[in-house]
Amino acid sequence: MKSLVHDFLLETAARTPTATALICGDQRVSFAELAAAAGGIAATLQEMGVRRGDRVMLLLENSVEMVAAVFGIAMAGGVFVPINSTTKAAKLADLIADCTPRVLIAGAAHAPVVDSAGADVQVLWGGGGLDDAMAARPAVTDPGLIDQDLVAIIYTSGSSGVPKGVMLTHRNMANTAWAISTYLGNRPDDVVICMLPMSFDYGLYQAITGARVGFAVVLEKSFAFPWRTLENMAAHRVTGLPGVPTIFAGLLQLAPFGDLDLSALRYVTNTAAALPPAHIRGLREAFPQVQIFSMYGLTECTRVSWLDPARLDDKIGSVGRAMPNSEVYVVDDAGRRLPPHHVGELVVRGANVMRGYWHKPDVTARRLRDGEIEGEKVLYTGDLFRMDAEGFLYFVGRVDDIFKCRGEKVSPKEVEHVLHEIPAVAEAAIVPVPDPVDGMAIKAVVVPREGAALTEDEVRRHCRARLESYLVPRFVEIRASLPRSENGKVRKAALAENTSN
């Protein structure tokens, strides 16, 4: 039986038409209303010439229109290409040239950026044009899809900084939505808040799993105002809080939360980077009633692993075991499986693994390689892990993040976890900087908690008490914030510059 992404919405709308699908500011949209809006967009796109496999780019903030467009593009047979709403004209032009979309759906406020990009593409503008499309009721022509057809291209820059379009099929996304909602135990009475951009797969899947299960999603445009987010969580009785380490660092600075009633919250999920143990302890104190799911993933397969909250204490620092319907293992440089507790590159096999990178066969060949089963391709993640005897994974670092100092290998994550133990530290990052004696020296960049005093000497003293001498940072920089990519990941290359202390 085939599973198509938009079928989740259509089936839930048929089953529970009046149930709330989306809450966005003053808007409250039912599943029936969302399905009708998506159908209107699908019909409009087909009238504009969109056929099976055609790309439709989305330049929209988190909104009802964004979610309706994602499902509408899928219904029309197209491939949705969500990009960050803050994308500048030069990058937009490059992305359009790369994936050659048939249509660009853009918010009216993005008109100057679209005009500056100078791309030759049909535009369906937010506001009047998109509102008309959502209200349209013509029949949608069946595009004849099967679950091996592409449904999404999600761009990721990775360590090279060059955007790569990750190609995902209906089967990829349907399998992942099933797996995530299964281990999280999602149910129709859940209310999940989404402050992550839907250009980021972690944000996108909140809407897709919501449609699959039938729960409501509260859409936030950003995490710019953390207290307002907490107020919305209390007002809407939010039960699920997905986030990344930077979001949780921000929330923990506001704890305790005064008179806000957050007792409905039953789970917290994290991905993008492993949660430091200090953050896990902070979340437990702030939300004693919740289950904390530490997860690991990358765009090329969306999600890799999850840690059962019941194992948080005896598997400290782990990101769990393989998610349902997938297998993971660790290999050496020759691609041979390693025994437990050895460090090597993580390999993923399963229905969640991408089709490849759009128009990048050479890069695809480096990441998708022959597996142990004849004819199968598996994903080499580029991440270093160790796995214990029970199959629990422990992140060591990116293959290209590990560096040597005084002849010893340094894992930035190990030092960062120690820095997060300092009560005054909100965020921390470790980067290598050139050194004429050691080859590379360790630089620590730390962000103090709001109102907290922190000195370079305090940071070094703490590290000397907890780490081997070669792991103690040579340089310490205290700054107000860490530079981040559009998806919230720390841009470490920027931190390595201008080292003078």
Q: CATH class of the largest domain, anyone?
A: Alpha Beta
- Overall tally of structural domains: 3
Alpha-carbon Rg, integer: 23 Å
What share of residues are in beta strands? 25-35%
Shape: globular
Structural class, judged by helices and strands? alpha/beta
Counted beta strands: 26
Distance between the termini: 62 Å
Q: Counting H and I runs of at least 4 residues, what is the number of helices?
A: 15
Q: How are strands sequenced across the largest beta sheet?
A: 11-12-13-14-15
Reported for the largest beta sheet, the result is: 5 strands, mixed
How much is the average pLDDT? 91
Runs with pLDDT <50, length 5+?
none
CATH architecture of the largest domain: 3-Layer(aba) Sandwich
Named CATH topology of the largest domain: Rossmann fold
Helix content: 25-40%
In CATH terms, the superfamily of the largest domain is: ANL, N-terminal domain
Structure write-up:
- The protein has 501 residues and is an alpha/beta fold.
- It has 3 domains: 5-10 and 29-179, 3-Layer(aba) Sandwich (Rossmann fold); 223-400, ANL, N-terminal domain (Rossmann fold), CATH 3.40.50.12780; 403-495, GMP Synthetase, Chain A, domain 3 (2-Layer Sandwich), CATH 3.30.300.30.
- Helices cover 31% and strands 26% of the residues.
- The protein has 15 helices and 26 strands.
- The strands form 7 sheets. Strands 11-12-13-14-15 form a 5-stranded mixed sheet, sandwiched between helices. Strands 16, 17, 19, 20 and 21 form a 5-stranded antiparallel sheet that branches.
- Strand 22 and strand 23 (408-410) form a beta hairpin.
- Helix 2 (31-47) crosses helix 3 and helix 7 crosses helix 8 (201-213).
- The longest helix has 17 residues, at 31-47.
- The protein is globular, with a radius of gyration of 23 Å.
